[in-house]
Structures are given as C-alpha cells and as structure tokens.
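User: Run a structure prediction on this.
Assistant: Running it now.
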Amino acid sequence: QGSCPFWPLHRERLIAGCQKLAIPLDTTVLDQEYQQFLAYLASEGALDRPITDDKLNQASQGILKLIVTRGVGGQGYAPPASPTPNRLWQWRELPEHVAPVSVKLETSTLQLSQQPVLAGLKHLNRLEYVLAAQACSQGYQPLLLDQSGHIIETLSHNLFCVHKTDSGELRITTPRLSRCGVAGVLRRWLMEQAYEVGYTILERDVTLPELLSASEVFIGNSVRGIWPVTEIDHTLFAAGPVSEAFHTLHQRYLRSF
C-alpha cells in the first residue's frame, strides 16, 4: 500500500553493514531514491491491488529489495580508495506461500564458518547457503549450525524455540549470532515487541539437543512472517500458542499501514 513497513529497521541495518564494510553510503540520496522508487511503482500501477481480509500479505503487494555494491574496482582484492557504490532497486512479486504453513527442517551437513567481523550482517557472500540448499532433501529447509555445533538459522529465516521451565513458565530463545549468521529485521522487531503479547525473547547459544527438546519451534523473516516448525530431523513438533501470538502481532502491525 505504498510503504515498506520495516523500512526504518532495514535502513538502519543497511547503513551499519555499509559502515562495517567501508562502503560509503549517502543517506540523503538513499532516502530520496526510496521515495522516488515508491512513486515510480505507484505510477506504474504496481500498488493498486485491493486489500482483502483473508489475503493481507498478498494485498501488501510485493517485495522491495535494495542491493548496494562497492562499485567498479581494479585487479585484485583491494578496493579503490574512493569507490563509487552502485544501488540496485528491485520490485518482486510475493512468493506463492506467505501465510504460515508447516515447515520441516533438516540439519545441514555444511557448517557455517565463524567470522565475528561479519556476524549479523546481511551481505552478498552466500556461497555456504548455496551449497547447503543444494544438499538439502526435497521438502525440507536446511537447519544451519556453526562449526561449534550451535544452532544459527535456516537459509533465509531466523529461528526461535520455546522451553517450559520447572516452574511452568515459557522461555523463548533465539540463537546468538555473534560468530556468524544474519540478524534479521523481523528477529529484531520481535525481540523489541515481544512484551506486547506477554513474552520476552532471550538471545543465547542453542545446541541441537536443546532445540529438539523444545515444546515449540518457529522461524521467521520480514517477507514471509512467522512459520511454525513441525519437524526437525524426523522429530515432530506441533504449532503452539507462542508462534500464533507472534504471528497475530506481526499481522496486526502490517494492518496498521
């Protein structure tokens, strides 16, 4: 409907990533291009689909994607002293499945390498993920661990798990991403807004045995929202109240636009 709901968080993460990689990014130009691209989409009729209550995600039209590269360089790895970055704005139709469906995960044989300097960034070096996707069984999504055996994420979703404490309380955890992995925008938003539905999300290291002992597991990103996990390595899970509460919270946020 003419806006990108999570744009402020995407913008903040993009700026931080460019700073980490020493890619100069003019934020004034960035903001101007964002508005210009939305205006262009509106003029082309890309934002004119009607909203229906049962297809909120489809009514939100599509995916706005921005890729920033360092630009043209010479031979070798050293970047130019004064690079001229490229910014590529893309408009994509939504994927076919955006509503919550059952998701099955399979532990990948490929372990993510640990590089704290790049941990959390959403960068374009995705070769490990390409190899993991190639090796995954049909009908499953790869569950990615690091070289220390800690759960990190799936190919394009952050992961959350729920455990019941001895007192009967629910403890919600998302894997720590200080060594590798992508700190997703929806992950951050859920951690900041969890209090709205009476929960707190903790970030800590999670092992595979701990994950398999969870009462509930779900994944999420800013395009597909929140999906409950129903199977991990043939261990079955049921969709539960926590993922449903966060799904409802996310949908309510989208409806505010």
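Residues 37 and 89 are 8 Å apart (CA to CA).
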